[in-house]
Amino acid sequence: MLGTLSEHYGFNYTLLTPTDGGAWGGRTPDGKWNGMVGMIFRGEADMALSDFSITPSRDLAVDFTYPYYVDYVNFIVKAPSEKPRYIAIIRPFTLEVWIAILVSVIVTAVILSLLTKMSFVPQSENWTVSQTIWYFFGALTQQGGAEHIPQKGTVRMVVSAFWAFAIIIMAGFSGTLTSFINVPGFNKAVDNIPDLVQKIQVGEYKAGTVEGSSILKILSDATQGYLFNIGQAMKADPKNSVVRSIQQGVNETIYRNYALVFTKAPMEAEVAALGISRFRFSTDQFFSAYYAIAIPTGSPMKELLDVFVFKCMEAGLVEFWKKQILDKNTIKSFFSNKEATLPADTKVPASVSVTDMQGAFIILGAGYILGIFCFFLEVIIDSILNKKHVAKTKETNNFQW
């Protein structure tokens, strides 16, 4: 913008940066102005350009041109992590469906067992509840049929209905399981202000902003609402909340549960260089911020600068320049870290790994453990019954003698 401005009006310029650590600028405890606002106020600079937002306090010290960009203050956190693949085996159905299937197997087993006993079928064709449950378990895994089915029509009707039920259930399970193995999904993201405040209050997240920014003052001075909640938590632990720069704040979100509260455009430029897919912007915003060029109060440049700003907006140059920056940073990120910049919905075809199928192996292992447990339980029970049998036999022999 400054290059285009100088070319349009034909002037040269020298770039200066604040040396007092005030960044954008604000009032110090002794009432003086620091940062860029202070440099304009003291006549050390003729104009200031940056992600410089208009605030009522700054407007007391300097003049602003017409806003050239409207941004929104929201927050950024790291992208949610991928859900564990070992739970893919149970995710195809909700808890209610799993309970319904279990109840269906048990109820059908009891009904069928009673039918075989009450339908005058031969004793050899009677099914116990345990036999029926194992048969239906085999049906659900599409491996049933080992048991001899009683010839009674009523019984076969129930069995046929359950097989139809099992085929439908397994068809839905198999297709959905494949999807969850390939795309396990992600944990719930912290992507709105109420969720963030709730996480802060329970101690799971820290939130903060850049020192010297107008956002820091707004959060610190807030007296109610979400801004107040975040501001109080920030003042309670400023060391882990307030950062020196946007770059530091973005990096903090990667390595810990930290939310950087700032205007969106500067954060977009920063995360584009690191890979946008690694981050999540909030879906709502705290308030709007209006970027403008700061100039000395009463400066004759204001009218010319306002005309320039209007022309830039009409030509779409501001959005064009923003897109150029984002594209440049995205390309840089692509060559430095290709994996990080792949779109979230991109999947590279790959063979199913042990990690993908760990849920199946966990179930198999659980079956081994339960089988061994049942084996030792049977040994103990048989030992107790044998002792009772031996004792009873001795009693009988003694009586006979």
What is the compact description of this entry?
This protein has 401 residues and is α+β, with helices and mostly antiparallel strands. It has helices at residues 2-9, 35-41, 95-118, 129-140, 153-182, 193-201, 214-221, 225-236, 246-255, 264-272, 301-315, 317-336, 358-400, and strands spanning 63-64, 69-78, 206-208, 258-263, 279-281, 287-291, 294-295. Strands 2, 3, 4, 5 and 6 form a five-stranded mixed β-sheet that branches.
Cα radius of gyration in angstroms? 36 Å
Residue stretches low in confidence (pLDDT < 50, at least 5 long) are: 338-352
Structural class: alpha+beta
Query: Tally the helices: what do you get?
Result: 13
Distance between the termini: 117 Å
Helix % is 40-55%
- Shape, per Cα inertia axes: elongated
Main beta sheet: strand number and arrangement? 5 strands, mixed
How confident is the prediction overall: mean pLDDT?
A: 80
Question: Could you give the order of the helices and strands?
Answer: HHEEHHHHEHHHEHEEEHHH
In percent terms, what proportion of residues is strand? 5-15%
Strand elements, count:
7
